[in-house]
Each structure stands twice: as structure tokens, then as C-alpha cells.
Amino acid sequence: MSRVPEASVFLVVDEAKRKAREKGIPLLDLSIGSTDLLPPPEPLQALREALADPSTYGYCLKSCTLPFLEEASRWYEGRYGLRLDPRREALALIGSQEGLAHLLLALTEPHDLLLLPEVAYPSYFGAARVASLRTHLIPLREDGLADLSRVPESIWKEAKVLLLNYPNNPTGALADWGYFEEALALAERHGLWLVHDNPYVDQVYQGEAPSPLALPGGKERVVELFSLSKSYNLAGFRLGFALGNEEAIGRLERVKGVVDFNQYAGILRMGVAALKTPREVTRGFAQVYRERALGMAEALEGALSLLPPKATMYLWGRLPEGVDDLEFTLSLVERGVALAPGRGFGPGGKGWVRIALVRPLKELLEAARILKEALD
């Protein structure tokens, strides 16, 4: 089966950034998707009020999470028209990354087979290792989507979970409803779970991101993971939720029951307030990223071959032939710009870099200038 990337790639880049700062090199750090945008004021105010309420200071068991899960279910129904039971088809997470790791443990047995794209968020590979899973990596199409037609029938028959993530980190690729219909049909035909990690649901530049859970039959096979980190600029507070199949949610709850007591109640109250944020606010955040993406795409023309930006806070670019992505990334740090080397996102990422659009456009354009100079 396919090999997975080494997490040490990012440790090497982090060490290079540390040394650059020690030398006094001003660093434009575009290597991590940690936004410079501020959260809406309402969730922060809800957290302030919770901090003044001593009833929030104790352990937070399932009943404590219900107001948040009820709001998450309302949010989903308002967006996609599907009503969910917050007690049985929803679960609070300490971020979607935690949720995914525990979900794979809940849905599989050691040595089961996981299907995922050959370019993916690094945590997916780590979660597969923690669960002792084998992996089959799916090649990407030209549009950045996993090419499901290239998975052999024998692999489909053996697989237990198909893991997807659209809008995608690192590529920014965006799947349409038809793509998810195909994925769900394959999951139904072969009796596997479809897990969709959906933290970038609100970072679509035009229109709305599809949700496979909302498709006919979705509740029979799908679990979706959502996060407040990207939609509301609340990454450090570590809050998300899982929605979907009742059996899968129950399994996940049992695994989490031996690991944690949920998030702090005040952060859950903050989450309720965040989910009530008007859609035009999150659309405004998405438009900031769109302007940055289009500006950077124009500035980098002729230097990188970019996947056309449609969503997320990232640009995914192919380096010129023969340029090693890790070596280039390390050399660029010495010039004052940090990017993420593509190989850290899987074997399909070699020769690519990910640019996080987490600084104002003026600073991003300066980073583009430095990058182009480094390639000359």
C-alpha cells in the first residue's frame, strides 16, 4: 500500500524559521493557515460573560453540550435543509482534527483499509497511523479532486472508509454536488463510510459548498466534521462538531468518552453565538481571501503553475521542473518568506508549495516578489 508523508518535513521548516528569526530576518510566515482576520465580536462577548459565570467552571458532560449541538443542527438545517437529531446525530468536538482521529478509531479495526487523496491535510496520515490503518492514496484529477474512477474495484471492495475534504486543504479545490453523488453512490455500493472533513465550508468564493450528508441516503453512510476555526477565525479555541449517521456518531461518542470531558462550557457558549453569525459576515471573510488569492495568482503568473483558486485560504502551486519543494522552501526562509512544502501533504505534493493567504494583500505581494526573485 502507499507510503505516507513524514511529519518531520514541517519540523525542518519550523526549525529554519526559528533560526531565521534568531538572525533577525523579518519573516512573512505563509506556511500555516492561521488567519490574521478577527472573529466576530458576539462570540467573544459570549465567552467573556461565561468566564464571569462560576457555573461554567466544572466538567462539561453530554448535557452541557446540547445547547451547542442544537444550534449546530439548526445551522445545518438552515444551510442545507436537512433536520438532524442533536442528541443522536451530532457531537461536539475539540476541533475537527481531534474529531477525525477519534472517528477513524471508532469506525475501523486495525489493518482496515482507508481511501484518501494522495494530497491531503497531514493530520489524515497521522490519524491513519494512530488507528493502525492501511492506506490507498487516490491520484488527483487536473482540477485537484480525487479521481475516484482510478480506484481499482478490488480496492473498493476491501475499503472501510473513504475520506474526503472539499473545499480542500491544501489545494483549494472545490467539489460540486455531482462529485459527492458519485462518492456516495460508491460508498453505498461497497458498504463503506464516507467521512467528509468540512472545516472550510464557509470559505467558498462564489456560491455555497455542497454537503454529502444532505444528499438522499446521506444519513445512512456519511459523517461530516465542521470547525469554528476557519469560518469564525477562532482556531485557538478548538471547537467543532460532527454531524451524520447515528451509529457512527454513537461510536465516536463512546471513543471520546474515555478520552475527554468535552470543551470548556464557556467555549461552547461562544460556539452558540458564533453559529448565529449572519451569513454575510462569513461571506465577507471569504471575499477577503478571494481578493488575496486573485491578487497573488496574478502576481505569481509565470513563476508557479497554480490550481485556479475557488475556495479556502490557500493557493497550491507547482514549482518549475526540477525544483525541489523542500529545498526551495528552506532557501526561501532565508529570504524572509515561509511556505509549506508540498511533500508534507503526501507523495502527490512533491514539487508543489502551499501558500497560506493569512497576511494583508500588500504583504502577500511582497512575498510574491521575493518568491519570483528566488526562482530567477
UniProtKB/TrEMBL annotation:
<dbReference type="InterPro" id="IPR015422">
    <property type="entry name" value="PyrdxlP-dep_Trfase_small"/>
</dbReference>
<dbReference type="GO" id="GO:0008483">
    <property type="term" value="F:transaminase activity"/>
</dbReference>
<dbReference type="InterPro" id="IPR015421">
    <property type="entry name" value="PyrdxlP-dep_Trfase_major"/>
</dbReference>
<dbReference type="InterPro" id="IPR004839">
    <property type="entry name" value="Aminotransferase_I/II_large"/>
</dbReference>
<feature type="domain" description="Aminotransferase class I/classII large">
    <location>
        <begin position="27"/>
        <end position="368"/>
    </location>
</feature>
<keyword id="KW-0808">Transferase</keyword>
<dbReference type="InterPro" id="IPR050881">
    <property type="entry name" value="LL-DAP_aminotransferase"/>
</dbReference>
<dbReference type="GO" id="GO:0030170">
    <property type="term" value="F:pyridoxal phosphate binding"/>
</dbReference>
<dbReference type="InterPro" id="IPR004838">
    <property type="entry name" value="NHTrfase_class1_PyrdxlP-BS"/>
</dbReference>
<keyword id="KW-0032">Aminotransferase</keyword>
<protein>
    <recommendedName>
        <fullName>Aminotransferase</fullName>
        <ecNumber>2.6.1.-</ecNumber>
    </recommendedName>
</protein>
<comment type="similarity">
    <text>Belongs to the class-I pyridoxal-phosphate-dependent aminotransferase family.</text>
</comment>
<dbReference type="Pfam" id="PF00155">
    <property type="entry name" value="Aminotran_1_2"/>
</dbReference>
<dbReference type="InterPro" id="IPR015424">
    <property type="entry name" value="PyrdxlP-dep_Trfase"/>
</dbReference>
